[in-house]
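User: Here's a chain of 472 residues. Predict its fold as tokens.
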Amino acid sequence: MIGRVEEQSVLNELAMSGESEFVVVYGRRRVGKTYLVRETFNNEFFFSYTGIANIKAHQQRSEFVKALKEHGWVSKDDGFDASKNWFNAFDALRDFISAASIKERILIFIDELPWMDNKKSDFVPALENFWNGWASGHKHIMLIICGSAASWITKKIFRNKGGLYNRTTRQISLKPFTLAECREYYESRGISMNTQDIIESYMIFGGIPYYLRLLERRYSLALNVDNICFSEDAPLRYEFERLMDTLFSTPGKHIEILEALFAKKQGLTREAISNSINFGNGGNLTRILLELEESGFIRKYKPFGTGKKDAIYHLVDFFTSFHLTFMRSTNSEKFWSSFIDNARHRAWSGYAFEQVCLAHINQIKKALGITGVHTDVSSWVSRGNGKGAQIDLVIDRNDRVINLCEMKFAVGQYEITSSYDLELRNKVEAFRSATKTKKALHLTMVTTYGVKPGKYASTAQAEVNMHDLIDG
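Assistant: Prediction complete.
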């Protein structure tokens, strides 16, 4: 298994804890939750079941009971209908465990749990009853649940106002691969990529293992992208629509918000989002924004020196951004291989590289030698008269230094010209003037191949390049 060392360690420790454990593994769809759990335990579960999307409640219960029977459950009461409701279904699971008379660790794995909770279903109360009323009192039981609908997990499990409140013993949020893990994965598959290709693949697929698995080593990255995203039978051609439909019951407004954030690369406030999509600024907007954030599509952050009401939302899912930029607007099957190195590609590369950098803050801190220093990470936008200055990455350090990071994509060393040098100096002074900070300001260039030596190269006090992003 590539990466996931910490997550596997946690799962193995919990399996040996000698206590009852209720573990939740959640994260973006396609990120590898099921693979992590099954590989960690060699697929050896006392009972496992995977929820089925878009089927009726009675069908879901029937499939659950069928799985119980396949694992060896036999009802002791001919008149007992385990599929009548979820309370009966979980009673059957309880009786199955009890009848086994096993004293060592019993692993129960229920995957895609949110799909099991149909509208007006008794699923959640029945799960509460199973865990609180019986399973939590048996130290040899470990229940592991997974779900891609992070918003459902958060609302119904983590923030549950009933019997499941504060009942989970461990929560594992599974993140996409880092650049280093992507490189390790490619090497394990015999896929040959140089550093720039690894960066570009991340700009497109964002470190999602399922997407990376589709790459074939016999093709270049460009041809792989054509085959995976643009060809007539491309496996990801309708991936965005599938994601929306499986994660959100009515995804219309979710999509509108993603489109609005895509159109405004610098991000939008909550009020601006409300105005952009012509949607009320109330509870429904709060719910949708939370669902998108917890599903890994957007991020919310507080710009430097501002309050909560000034929070900015950004689109951060790489594949969604790539889909909205290119896949939605082209029918060419060889689009990407014929698209390289033109103005539109360069414009996309610049923004996408910024997002790669923002996804690797820890690696940037390591390259700067400040891993052990407490930091606050944000961005900053000047709202003064005239053209406002903007700094997309501000690292505010406890050692009385602030790194103002400029992120630039280039196919070679990045040259700081006379005009850009003036722009950088004006940005730094605008930041100092607006924030009134007394800390030292270190202009930091984060580039692909580093800053080209020259008259203005010394403008930057520190540098980070794409090799630091991967090797860090």
